[in-house]
Amino acid sequence: MIAEIPFWQRKRLAEMTQAEWESLCDGCGKCCLVKLEEEQTGEVYYTDLACSQMDSATCQCQSYGNRQQVVPECTVLTPDNIGQFHWLPYTCAYRTLAEDRPLPEWHPLRSGDPDSVHRAGVSVAHRVIPADQVPQEDWQEHIIHWVL
Question: Which helix (H) or strand (E) holds 47?
Fold first, then answer.
């Protein structure tokens, strides 16, 4: 018997169910980091500052169901807007599939283990601090390069 082809290999992003779409998130937490944009060049820099709602140990949002009410500037990715977010890290499954690349071995959908992203060193778990603990004028001092 031939194994069924996984949904992420046989469906376009726009064809996925909400549950399939949500399961693409690898739980790395990178999208929940404060990013600074260079006004003149448009270049985006990641910081080690996380949204106040992110659990820094698990990289999970503590208010996921109502995150936009708690954090109005929270970005919600959809198949329709995924192309607008040029700042998504190269490892992001949404970006990966939008660019027709295969999911990496460590992705939880491939490994069957939600912690594989952490063991692979791809997540920001235990490497960030809440942004609300740092004055905004000091955010530039928190620019990092290990995310990418």
Answer: strand 44-50
- Residue located via tokens 């809440």: 130
Task: Print burial letters for 8-26: b (CB count within 10 Å at least 16), e (below 16).
Answer: beeeebeebeeeebeebbb
Task: Please give the DSSP secondary-structure letter assigned to residue 115.
Answer: T
Q: What ranges do the domains of the chain cover?
A: 18-142
Q: How far is the CA of 101 from the CAs of 91, 94, 116, in angstroms?
A: 10, 10, 19
- Write out pLDDT tens, residues 125-137: 999 999 999 999 9
Phi/psi of residue 46, nearest 5 degrees: -85, 150
Model pTM score? 0.89
CA distance 61 to 66: 10
pLDDT digits (tens, 9 = 90+) for 19-37: 999 999 999 999 999 999 9
Which phi-psi region, left, alpha or beta, contains residue 113 (left: φ > 0; alpha: ψ -120 to 50)?
beta
